[in-house]
Amino acid sequence: MIVLRVIGWLLILAALVLLGRDLYGWFAAGHWKPTLAGDLWHGLSPNSLALLQPAIERHIWPPLWHHGVLPILIQPAWLVLGVPGLVLAIIPRRARKRRRFGK
């Protein structure tokens, strides 16, 4: 469970860094333009993002791309990383507390 919490805190840290970057850009430019998850992924590994769509559409389920993955890719990157980070940081802690009371 500690591994999940560490991963969760790393995701939260990355989300905070990206949020700070977006806020700095907002103050510097004067308008809000968040870094989208798809843009971030494309900047880090454009080939893997280009291969994801045909792989999902051909081998898994075609509507999954348009109704599952694409809506996530157009969200702010800090949100896409922060929500799973919070879940991973909080859920293992609650499970551990429940076990203590059960003994």
Task: Walk me through this protein's architecture.
The structure is a single chain. The chain is mainly α and 103 residues long. The chain has 2 domains: 1-35 and 78-103; 36-75, no CATH class. Helices cover 86% and strands 0% of the residues. The chain contains 5 helices and no strands. Helix 1 (2-29) packs antiparallel against helix 5, helix 2 (37-44) packs across helix 3 and helix 3 (46-60) packs antiparallel against helix 4 (62-73). The longest helix is centred in the N-terminal third of the chain and has 28 residues, at 2-29. The two termini are 18 Å apart. The model has no long low-confidence stretch (mean pLDDT 90).
Low-confidence stretches: none
Determine Rg (CA atoms, Å).
17 Å
Question: How many domains is the backbone divided into?
Answer: 2
Order of helices and strands: HHHHH
Average residue pLDDT: 90
Largest sheet: none
Count of helix runs: 5
Which strand-content bin applies to the residues? under 5%
Give the termini separation: 18 Å
Estimated helix fraction: over 70%
Helix/strand/pairing category: mainly alpha
- What would the principal axes of the Cα set say about the shape? flat
Task: Count the beta strands.
Answer: 0
